[in-house]
């Protein structure tokens, strides 16, 4: 009888899909079926290893990719309800769900607002006016870019100098600090805050981290070569207790370098998970 999960896989793909618990690094080129492997890995964990949908943390980089992965898993395993239970989503979406439950631990309300890029730029312009900084001195879009670059590297306003060398360093630090105060007073988080604040939540509240480590018994990441510093730390924290982490990537195909992606995280996977397969 045909097996939709295990059929039509080459020996290397079959080994990856059915690998035992522990760190799993899958490196392959474009068009080699990497996403098929991680999708079938999830289906295999559900059907053959008897994991519950809510025990899986599967992250990718776009809503379209997440939806496609989820639909494939549902087709492989069956069950319409499964689609609602499977936490296959973008990093930002998965972190937003965690923060909706745990925000009070960070001094935020559960119903915090999520700022999109347009909201963020409006907030930057507002604090620049409040500070008396003209657009001719620093462009608001440039200040926005520097703020995001800092957040991708988990840097506070006084650490702006680590991402730029500019005569405007102190001005940008002041904008960043005022911006943070402004959005926090509005009970808001911006897009880059979602992952950084989740990392901070786990670092500052080990009891909450332990709860999510016990909840998410399998951590999977597609397109791992596009991971940035905050995302890298997030998955390391989640997988630290059990080391059940499977990542798929292509060292020759980094797309999101403009959002802080660092291929070193793929190349150094074994450094943090030396027992990887």
CATH class of the largest domain: Alpha Beta
Tell me about the biggest sheet? 5 strands, parallel
Question: Stretches where pLDDT falls below 50 for ≥5 residues?
Answer: 254-261
What is the assigned CATH homologous superfamily of the largest domain?
Answer: P-loop containing nucleotide triphosphate hydrolases
Distance between the termini: 30 Å
DSSP helix count? 13
If you average the pLDDT, what whole number results? 88
Q: Would you give the CATH topology of the largest domain?
A: Rossmann fold
DSSP, total strands: 7
Rg from alpha-carbon coordinates: 20 Å
**Helix proportion of residues, in percent?**
40-55%
The secondary-structure element order is HEHEHHEHEHHHEHHEHEHH
Overall spatial form: elongated
Features:
single chain; 277 residues; alpha/beta; Rossmann fold; Arc Repressor Mutant, subunit A; 2 domains; five-stranded parallel sheet; two-stranded parallel ribbon; 7 strands
Would you give an account of this structure?
The chain is an alpha/beta fold. It folds into two domains: 11-102 and 194-272, P-loop containing nucleotide triphosphate hydrolases (Rossmann fold, 3-Layer(aba) Sandwich), CATH 3.40.50; 113-186, Arc Repressor Mutant, subunit A, CATH 1.10.10. Helices cover 51% and strands 10% of the residues. The chain has helices spanning 11-17, 34-47, 63-77, 82-85, 91-102, 117-131, 140-152, 169-185, 191-204, 206-215, 229-239, 264-267, 269-272; strands at residues 24-27, 56-60, 88-90, 113-115, 188-190, 218-221, 245-249. The protein has a five-stranded parallel sheet, with helices on both faces. Strands 4-5 form a two-stranded parallel sheet. α11 links the parallel β6 and β7 (245-249). α6 crosses α7 (140-152) and α9 (191-204) crosses α10.
């Amino acid at each position: 009888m045909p097996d939709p999960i295990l059929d039509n896989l080459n020996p290397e793909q079959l080994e990856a899909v059915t690998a035992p618990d522990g760190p799993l690094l899958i490196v392959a080129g474009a068009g080699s079926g990497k996403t098929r492997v991680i999708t079938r890995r999830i289906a295999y964990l559900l059907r053959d290893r008897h994991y519950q949908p809510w025990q899986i943390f599967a992250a990718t980089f776009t809503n379209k990719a997440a939806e496609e992965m989820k639909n494939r898993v549902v087709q492989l395993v069956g069950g319409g309800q499964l689609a609602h239970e499977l936490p296959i989503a973008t990093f930002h979406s998965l972190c937003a769900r965690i923060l909706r439950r745990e925000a009070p631990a960070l001094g935020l309300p559960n119903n915090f607002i999520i700022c999109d890029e347009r909201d963020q730029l409006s907030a930057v312009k507002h604090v620049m006016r409040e500070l008396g900084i003209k657009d001719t001195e620093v462009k608001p879009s440039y200040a926005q870019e520097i703020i995001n670059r800092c957040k991708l590297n988990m840097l506070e306003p006084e650490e702006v100098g680590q991402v730029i060398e500019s005569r405007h360093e102190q001005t940008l630090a002041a904008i960043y600090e005022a911006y943070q105060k402004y959005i926090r007073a509005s009970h808001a988080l911006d897009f880059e805050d979602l992952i950084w604040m989740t990392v901070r939540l786990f670092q500052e509240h080990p009891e909450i981290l332990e709860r999510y480590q016990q909840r998410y018994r399998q951590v999977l990441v597609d397109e791992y070569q596009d991971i940035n510093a905050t995302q890298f730390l997030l998955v390391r924290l989640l997988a630290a207790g059990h080391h059940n982490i499977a990542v798929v990537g292509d060292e020759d195909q980094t797309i999101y370098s403009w959002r802080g992606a660092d291929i070193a995280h793929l190349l150094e996977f074994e450094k943090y998970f030396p027992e990887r397969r």
